[in-house]
Amino acid sequence: xxxxxxxxxxxxxxxxxxxxxxxxxxxxxxxxxxxxxxxxxxxxxxxxxxxxxxxxxxxxxxxxxxxxxxxxxxxxxxxxxxxxxxxxxxxxxxxxxxxxxxxxxxxxxxxxxxxxxxxxxxxxxxxxxxxxxxxxxxxxxxxxxxxxxxxxxxxxxxxxxxxxxxxxxxxxxxxxxxxxxxxxxxxxxxxxxxxxxxxxxxxxxxxxxxxxxxxxxxxxxxxxxxxxxxxxxxxxxxxxxxxxxxxxxxxxxxxxxxxxxxxxxxxxxxxxxxxxxxxxxxxxxxxxxxxxxxxxxxxxxxxxxxxxxxxxxxxxxxxxxxxxxxxxxxxxxxxxxxxxxxxxxxxxxxxxxxxxxxxxxxxxxxxxxxxxxxxxxxxxxxxxxxxxxxxxxxxxxxxxxxxxxxx
Length: 407
Description:
The protein is an all-alpha fold. The protein has a single domain, classed as MFS general substrate transporter like domains (Growth Hormone, Chain: A, Up-down Bundle). It has 16 helices and no strands. The chain has helices at 8-38, 42-69, 72-95, 101-125, 135-164, 168-185, 189-192, 204-217, 219-240, 242-249, 257-282, 284-304, 308-336, 342-353, 357-371, 374-394. Helix 1 runs antiparallel to helix 6, helix 3 (72-95) packs antiparallel against helix 4 (101-125) and helix 9 crosses helix 14. The radius of gyration is 20 Å and the shape is globular. The two termini are 21 Å apart. Its main location: membrane.
């Protein structure tokens, strides 16, 4: 899925992203299964999700500042190296059978904290590697390649590897982080140096405010960010109890949980490859409206499903829509935001968009403990329908609009 037309540096970045995504696809379902072996209390399992969502809110804007100050290539490499060490330590703890709720919470918090800086740097790096008119294709191929690595390799293997030895998925994830760090270091330094390093720097706070003001003044990006925050309330709630919903409601066997979650990644591949064509055929806003309607139907179908196959299909369709939005958002923001502000504006949009995610996860955990996991899916579908209706009223075809959600 790479292309020589996009150049050597893009191929290296693509390879690093695919390597890292393969490891993520091993770790994410394995971490959920590990949490389910420690406790069956949905409140505690949801707490692991909440802790992983706090760092972008606490440190996201700060990460954006340093992504605009530092060499983005080196920043990404160092972060991946540290993440490799963290996951390797977790693998050792799991192998020694010393896992506790505290260990899971600390690991989730550290990995998410490091991820805030990595995300800001990677978002701002891509425009330095490919021409502006190639950004939609580059973003689509990044997401498609990562989805293939996760969907066809990582996710299906996660449950099987966890059944063989719970430490295996985490050990392999550490290797993928280390490989990604080496690949990023191989990027050409002149292309990866932060565009804003030559300008005069203000204080950290003044630079944070500058990024926030730019986002607030851009009507389209600001409106979409608010809609994203509202939709993430529902999405985060589903993700917080997904492992319990799959095991208890859809009757997915533990060894098949990785294969079940791979449905979302396969759907993501279709979305990544079709996003540009859909927007070109319908126009950006009509395409987004159509995708919103399809996603609402898919999430409703997921809430009504009681079988792994029907639930997996609904999840795949919903994931495809999410990836369509993510591809359009990334390309649009990278072309609209000045290069010296890319780290900060991107971080600001992610932070505002994720403000509701911990609340959604916490509410889902409490509701699941009181009423079971099935009603959580229904509530998420209803919430998303309301957000979709609001989006249809506020997103007008007179201006280019994109949307991004947490994945």
